[in-house]
Design a protein that fits this description.
Largest sheet: 5 strands, mixed
Helix content: under 10%
Number of helices: 1
Order of helices and strands: HEEEEEEEEEEEEEEEEEEEE
Radius of gyration: 32 Å
Shape: elongated
Number of domains: 2
Strand order of the largest sheet: 2-8-7-4-5
Structural class: mainly beta
Distance between the termini: 33 Å
């Protein structure tokens, strides 16, 4: 049995035990089992003396008391319609009814509100894209570096396990190469800079990117920490001047009290107009305590990007945090 089901079953058993606890074995009591926050439920007492008043109080799991007032006894019965507060404590609630010298007790289990609205799966779209291609010097192949700026258009739902297919297409509509990957999280209303590269066995020119994006799962917007980046630089290789070799900078753990254990990094290079012209990938594996920073180096994927075209770099992370 799943843990949550086991807990609910245990609470229900306890509630039934509370319902059965009365001062008279001949009495008849109708009491709810599971009751949702914000709903109304009926508590009815039977086999009462044929006169007088009954007073009902409800005590929730956190000790809060709700007075339901007096009801007259009609045909040996008294009935209350109890409104459960939307912020009532979850768990077993008990009630007590005083009817003259007769005492009745019982209970029920308060569970969370049932959502009446279905959440809509978020959409992840490409707001900007671009690439650079460079023929290999010593063989008939070429290198392609590409960058995508993805955005989650939902303001309330985080997109999880976002699967992408990036196809490189030539002028005739044929595929020259394909790259696939999965992004664990694109936060609600946020963007993700996805950069990568691909080695082709041909020098036929790529004219466009064909993209497929599928959101594997989603959840209500959560406060997931993300590291910040500072002093980001685009550098060339002295052995291959004129082309981008590396993007480096500082990764800063300033949004979480936990230690940033490692991060997968994705970089998109942008031209003067702010459009992607390539990208690359890297990682950090040194733990970064909260409030600390270290240098990061991303050195994979940029060899096809002209240095004079790359003006700025957008960096995104897939971080992993641990306590400490």
């Amino acid at each position: 049995m799943p843990l949550r089901s086991s807990i609910l079953a245990s609470l229900l058993v306890l509630a039934v035990a509370l319902v059965a606890s009365t001062t008279s074995t001949a009495s008849t009591t109708a009491s709810p089992g599971l009751v949702h926050r914000g709903s109304s439920t009926t508590i009815a007492l039977g086999s009462l003396p044929g006169y007088g008043l009954c007073q009902l109080t409800v005590r929730y799991a956190n000790g809060a008391v709700q007075d339901e007032g007096h009801r007259g006894v009609v045909n040996h019965r008294a009935t209350w319609v109890v409104k459960i507060p939307t912020k009532a404590a979850l768990g077993v609630a008990s009630w007590t009814a005083h009817c003259g010298t007769t005492l009745r007790t019982g209970g029920f289990v308060v569970v969370d509100t049932i959502s009446k609205t279905k959440t809509t799966a978020p959409r992840v779209v490409v707001t900007k894209q671009g690439f650079s291609q460079r023929p290999d010097a010593n063989d008939p192949g070429s290198a392609v570096s590409y960058g995508l700026i993805l955005r989650n258009t939902s303001a309330s739902e985080d997109a999880q396990n976002v699967y992408l297919i990036v196809d490189l297409v030539d002028a005739a509509g044929h595929l020259l190469g394909t790259k696939t990957g999965t992004i664990p999280l694109v936060q609600a209303g946020a963007s993700f800079a996805l950069g990568d590269s691909l080695a082709l066995r041909t020098q036929v020119g790529v004219v466009r990117l064909e993209l497929t994006i599928r959101v594997g799962a989603h959840q209500p917007r959560a406060r997931t920490p993300m590291p910040d980046f500072a002093n980001v630089r685009i550098l060339s290789n002295t052995g291959d001047p004129g082309w981008v070799a590396e993007v480096d900078g500082e990764i800063v753990n300033d949004t979480s009290k936990q230690t940033l254990e490692n991060s997968m990094l994705s970089v998109v290079l942008l031209n003067a107009a702010g459009n992607p012209i390539g990208g690359g990938t890297g990682a950090t594996f040194s733990p970064i305590p909260s409030g600390s920073r270290i240098v990061f180096l991303v050195q994979s994927g940029f060899s096809a990007v002209p240095l004079d075209k790359a003006v700025t770099a957008a960096v995104s992370a897939e971080p992993s945090y641990v306590a400490g």
